[in-house]
């Protein structure tokens, strides 16, 4: 596998900062932006391509962590918004189903989404939590 | 700014927990299907993460519902197991309420407990500890970092003393784990309590480290199906322990970065307050001190009124467990703080997510309100006029 180029690393950095700025919580948002900046700055002189790839892979995983949080928060906020709009009536059942389903899909990141209806778990891939 | 009371969940911890709250909801003790196997694998992974943070073996980690339960298991469990030969325990006067209360309940069972005093710095005198150890002492319990004043006890030295005298050493490390480097073998610790929600993990989970070599025997407090090696029966809450494990792993990676940053922010807070306000005392030894827990006493200002004035900042005047009572903190009393200064103390907590702006805002408001409250205080007026308050004879009406 070819090592990541400077351009790819910069793209990743920009993507991470962009996603981090979407945190609605002030403390999470400021922490994510600050930590990402400091981490990339600290590692900017790393020359060993194997080490660079390890760092890039970790950054990609962290980016996915942030993205998943954005998805689930967007869903949670959409449900609250709907509830506020029609405060006398509960949200229509189809909407509830849709938002819950999309939450399950976004958190099912270790498998393909198509298995959602099937609860038999057979795959035994070794997974690290992050 | 009350991180000693609790901390927010780190987003990385939430990410690790969610699958186990949604799809992977099996009971880790179910041996017959994949739900159980997966859940058990996650639980063991978390155990390994907790163990590697403190230099332990995963078989030495038992999951509990929090540091309070861990402290109860350590103190009551060890004392009761060895009760036929050993009837004495040693602890300090500045321990957490759950430790002191466990000791009190053991006294009712017929045990003897020595509550070691602390010096003005908040640190125990090692010679006093050595003198207090008797032939029938089973356990010494000293917390690593105090939750009210942030003082760090000399754990490695205490471990050395206890190991040479063949006494078990327990430490309540709830405020220290993941924040300062700890190694149970280097420091000769036999039992350690860990809390999830102090290290950016979920509430309702903790762990206890119980040494296997040489084996520490503990009488179980909770009877049941024999989970957790028979020492803590009950279904292990997979999502919570996965969160605890992830929190420990993140803490291990971020320890140096966080410590450097928190030290800088703490320095900023203390310097800015002290240079603008006279008569401010920092409680606890400034050198052997965890920077993220700062306890300041503002003379001639009542602590509760200052807290009410700083109502848009989350602060506390002592630990959350004692905040309901009107008495000043027993920890401050133990370090010899005057009654009036003890009533004027505020604890500032700085954590991973605290920003510079938050610190500056808190400092500014604190200075503003202390000045305002002092203007209103007749005691302050008298001090400004050069009167020594201790020489006043207060008359009865």
Question: What report would you give on this structure?
Answer:
The complex is a heterodimer of chains A (130) and B (397). With 130 residues, chain A is mainly alpha-helical. Helices cover 65% and strands 0% of the residues of chain A. Chain A is built from 4 helices and no strands. In chain A, α1 runs antiparallel to α2 (26-42), α1 runs parallel beside α3 (49-85) and α3 packs antiparallel against α4. By secondary structure, chain B is an alpha/beta fold. Chain B has 2 domains: 9-249, Aspartate Aminotransferase, domain 2, CATH 3.40.640; 254-385, Aspartate Aminotransferase, domain 1, CATH 3.90.1150. In chain B, 41% of the residues lie in helices and 12% in strands. Chain B has helices at residues 11-22, 34-54, 67-81, 97-108, 126-132, 155-164, 238-276, 303-309, 330-334, 339-343, 356-376, 378-384, and strands spanning 61-64, 88-92, 112-116, 137-141, 168-172, 191-195, 206-210, 280-282, 293-298, 345-349. In chain B, the strands form 2 sheets. Chain B has a 7-stranded mixed sheet, with helices on both faces. A 3-stranded antiparallel sheet of chain B has the order 8-9-10. Chain B is globular and about 80 Å long. The model of chain B has no long low-confidence stretch (mean pLDDT 94). Classes of the chains: A mainly alpha (130), B alpha/beta (397).
Query: Which oligomeric form is depicted?
Result: heterodimer
CATH class of the largest domain in chain B: Alpha Beta
Assigned CATH superfamily of the largest domain in chain B = Type I PLP-dependent aspartate aminotransferase-like (Major domain)
Please outline the major beta sheet of chain A.
none
Query: Of all protein chain pairs, which has the greatest interface, and how many residues does each chain bring to it?
Result: A-B, 26 and 23 residues
Q: Main sheet of chain B, how many strands, which sense, barrel?
A: 7 strands, mixed
Question: Helicity level of chain B, as a percent range?
Answer: 40-55%
- Per CATH, what is the topology of the largest domain in chain B? Aspartate Aminotransferase, domain 2
Instruction: Give the helix proportion of chain A (percent range).
Output: 55-70%
Number of domains of chain B: 2
Domain Complex 1 LYR protein (chain A): 7-65
Protein name (chain A): Complex 1 LYR protein domain-containing protein
Family (chain A): Belongs to the complex I LYR family.
Pfam families (chain A): Complex1_LYR
């Amino acid at each position: 596998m070819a090592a990541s180029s400077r351009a790819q690393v910069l793209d990743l950095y920009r993507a991470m900062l962009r996603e981090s700025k979407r945190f609605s919580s002030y403390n999470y948002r400021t922490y994510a932006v600050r930590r990402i900046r400091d981490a990339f700055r600290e590692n900017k002189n790393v020359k060993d391509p194997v080490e660079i790839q390890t760092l890039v892979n970790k950054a990609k995983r962290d980016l996915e962590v942030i993205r998943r949080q954005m998805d689930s928060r967007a869903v949670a906020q959409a449900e609250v918004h709907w509830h506020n709009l029609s405060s006398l009536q509960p949200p229509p059942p189809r909407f509830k189903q849709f938002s819950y389903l999309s939450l399950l899909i976004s958190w099912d990141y270790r498998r393909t989404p198509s298995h959602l209806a099937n609860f038999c778990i057979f795959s035994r891939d070794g997974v690290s939590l992050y | 700014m009350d991180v000693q009371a609790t901390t927010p969940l780190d987003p990385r911890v939430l990410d690790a927990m969610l699958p186990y709250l949604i799809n992977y909801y099996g009971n880790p003790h179910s041996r017959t299907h994949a739900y159980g196997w997966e859940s058990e694998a996650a639980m063991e992974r978390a155990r390994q993460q907790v163990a590697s943070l403190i230099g332990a073996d995963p078989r030495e980690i038992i999951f509990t519902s929090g540091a309070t339960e861990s402290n109860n298991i350590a103190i009551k469990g060890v004392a009761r197991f060895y009760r036929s030969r050993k009837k004495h325990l040693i602890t300090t006067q500045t321990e957490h309420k759950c430790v002191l209360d466990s000791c009190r309940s053991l006294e009712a069972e017929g045990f003897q407990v020595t509550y070691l005093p602390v010096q003005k710095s908040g640190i125990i005198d090692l010679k006093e500890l050595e003198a207090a150890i008797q032939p029938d002492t089973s356990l010494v319990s000293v917390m690593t970092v105090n939750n009210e004043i942030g003082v760090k006890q000399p754990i490695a030295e205490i471990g050395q003393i206890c190991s040479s005298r063949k006494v078990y050493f327990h430490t309540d490390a709830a405020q220290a784990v993941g924040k300062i480097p700890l190694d149970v073998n280097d420091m000769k610790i036999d039992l350690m309590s860990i809390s999830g929600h102090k290290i950016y993990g979920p509430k309702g989970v903790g762990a206890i480290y119980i040494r296997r070599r040489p084996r520490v025997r503990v009488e179980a407090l909770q009877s049941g199906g024999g989970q957790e090696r028979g020492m803590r029966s009950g279904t292990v809450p997979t999502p919570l322990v996965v969160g605890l494990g992830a929190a420990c792993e993140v803490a291990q990676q971020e320890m140096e970065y966080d410590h450097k940053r928190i030290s800088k922010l703490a320095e900023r807070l203390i310097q800015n307050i002290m240079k603008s306000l006279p008569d401010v005392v920092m409680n606890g030894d400034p050198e052997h001190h965890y920077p993220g827990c700062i306890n300041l006493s503002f003379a001639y200002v009542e602590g509760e009124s200052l807290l009410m004035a700083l109502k848009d900042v989350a602060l506390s005047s002592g630990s959350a467990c004692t905040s309901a009572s009107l008495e000043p903190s027993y920890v401050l009393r133990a370090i010899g703080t005057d009654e009036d200064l003890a009533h004027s103390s505020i604890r500032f907590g700085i954590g991973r997510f605290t920003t510079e702006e938050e610190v500056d805002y808190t400092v500014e408001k604190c200075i503003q309100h202390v000045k305002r409250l002092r203007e209103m205080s007749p005691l302050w007026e008298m001090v400004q006029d050069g009167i020594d308050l201790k020489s006043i004879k207060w008359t009865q009406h």
